[in-house]
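Internal tracking record. Fields below are filled automatically when a chain is submitted to the structure queue. Please do not edit lines marked as system-generated. If the sequence contains nonstandard residues, flag them in the REMARKS field before resubmitting.
Queue: standard
Priority: normal
Entity type: single polypeptide chain
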Amino acid sequence: MSEPQGLGDLFLLRKDVVFLNHGSFGACPVPVFDAYGRWQRALEEEPVEFLDRRFELRMAEARGALGAFLSADPDDLVFVPNATTAMNVVARSLPLGPGDEVLSTDHEYGAVDRMWRLVCAERGARYVRAQIGVPVRSEAEVVEAVWARRTPRTRVLSISHITSPTAVQLPVAQLVRRAREEGILTVVDGAHAPGQIPLALETLGADFYAGNCHKWMLAPKGAGFLHARRERQPLLRPLVISWGGEGESGPGPSPFLDDHQWQGTRDIAPFLAVSAAIRFMEEHDWDAVRAQCCQLLDAFSEQAEAELGLRPVGQETKPWPLQMRAFALPPCDGRALGRRLFDRWRIEVPVIAWNGRSLLRVSVQGYNTDRDLDALLRALEEELRTS
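SYSTEM-GENERATED OUTPUT FOLLOWS
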């Protein structure tokens, strides 16, 4: 199988590297990168026109395109550089106090874990992580494992939509619904979800949803978003205080947008290029591309288990619904293995330390081919035999 629809030449990735790590920072297609560059040039050609007189209109258009893609009201969205920024906006804003608890899982992104530990320590609150066994056998099993750690002191439920280290899609809709019934605020880290799975944020109903456009949505680096339910928006405080609605143009559409959209002079070209990324996916039938990527990953999984004994640690789901999968490695120096895969074999793939285990996380995107995955298989065969 060649790369889906012959998309390899539409990306700027180096041809001498087998790139199987889209999940970390994404990769931007040439037409989208060109649109990004045009926005940057327009900014430099007339900065005042761009950032003063045209800012709100252009940002509104970009939020409109993103809102349509996410099935969300554009006025409930603000652009941020990345999902980590969005998560910090929420965590720094919520009124946690001594004895309060933030409930999460042991599959969360390390930076978000660190964020909650620091915030809870500052407020005298407690960060609680539910253990989710792998492989995940059912959504009900996950919901019950999380809810078993809920107490009367639980104020916030913070969970990933798709986990970073283990590539598991958590049952967010069920957890959000249950939390709302008990008056618990919900914060979803959706860094890996937009562009990889269908999203309808209004229907999902999370109080706060943080996402990236630069990963699976194919936008340039520096494009993320925060979605907040209308009734929860007054809780949020901007990380950066700037003019907002107190500028010369007066207040904007809402205090939420006033506070979080304008943060002083910055390059907003990544945000404005999001609509080009959405068009690119539409023009290249990205649903079909995603399906072919999952087929490539399924074939690799079968070979990896049959030839090397490597099994996914995530869901026991067939066909696999995601373009990202984590495999449990035998005992080894994971950091050294990752270096050798790149230095010796020119394969870019992360080896992640998680819960005392080394995991190989493989991402497959439209530029990948079966040859890329076969190269990884052959490299692992050699490295694991000699390690």
